[in-house]
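hey so u asked for the seq, here:
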Amino acid sequence: MGQSGAGRRNQNPKGIGEALDALLSESEGQEHLRVGDILHTFGRQAFGPLILIPAVLLTLPTGVLPGVPLVLGAFIALICLEIVFGSRQPTIPRLFSRLKMSRQSVVKAREGAARPIALVDRLIRPRLTFLVGHPFIELIAVICLGLCALLLPLEFVPFATALPGSVLILMGLAITARDGLIAALGMVSAGGAGVGTWMLLA
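ran it, structure tokens below
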């Protein structure tokens, strides 16, 4: 591990772009990204990035790869369960942390979505921080668990996992940047994701 990587670890990124760039920088020279790399990159107190990164991957082309939505959803669900039960440090089972995807596919997705990612990142900042503190952060985690459950039926509908994935991005961003306004938007949007899922499957 390089010194710059060690200095970045345990620091929350300021947005989607910085989070993805940190993950790719830490994994430079590797052929695959493992689920455990997210925890390794952002440290054991960074719940926000641990929700944000998998959620972003759900909405990018990586989210249509067979099995990927279920793996990412299970990862997010594990993190959210730990928030609900008051854990101070996220932990991941060793077998689960070894699950992997092509690093190059993440690089291409990052490059292809550079402009919208930059636009979103300019809009977030710390505000209404009480909405991402206790007890609201537990409520956010419960909502995220519901969104993860929606991934199960949507796995077989092309690009449909982007629907709950986009709301999970809002929740991950809210926790990462301590942006209560984004958290409130995510709570409202979760209901829309549920309705949208029902319409897709009806």
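The two ends are 49 Å apart (CA to CA). The longest helix spans residues 180-201.
lmk if thats what u needed
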